[in-house]
Amino acid sequence: MTAPTRKTAPVNIADKLAQFSDLWSQRTIAALNDYEVKVAKVHGEFVWHEHEDTDELFLVVSGRLTIQLRDGDVVLGPGEIYVVPKGVEHCPKADEETAILLLEPKGTLNTGSAGGPLTLAAVPLD
């Protein structure tokens, strides 16, 4: 029986972020069990939404990200993470271009239950 093929090269987050310029468009850079590791560039305000079935991890790579919550904002700088619990309504916002990394189950929509014109599936990056 043959072992599954496995990528052995490390993933460089900065290199992956340099491959695109679209804002609010998630790119999948790795997979972990049933989870996707995604990066995105963000600027401005997103949309209020929630993920009914999953938590969502945000890690700021560069810039500053405000995660607006109904009971108070969380502000993140480079190297800081915050986990939005499942079912909690939130709205990411960045006053400057900010690079983020997200960890969430495969197939999680970026707009959660809100839907709308900003809903995009994550695009895989090689």
From TrEMBL:
This is Mannose-6-phosphate isomerase, cupin superfamily. Residues 43-101 form the Cupin type-2 domain. InterPro entries: Cupin_2 (IPR013096), PKS_Associated_Protein (IPR052044), RmlC-like_jellyroll (IPR014710), RmlC_Cupin_sf (IPR011051). CDD domains: cupin_YdbB-like. The keyword Oxidoreductase does not apply. It comes from Actinacidiphila alni. It holds the Pfam family Cupin_2. The lineage of its organism: Bacteria, Bacillati, Actinomycetota, Actinomycetes, Kitasatosporales. PANTHER family: 16.7 KDA PROTEIN IN WHIE LOCUS. One of its GO terms (molecular function) is isomerase activity. Keywords: Isomerase.
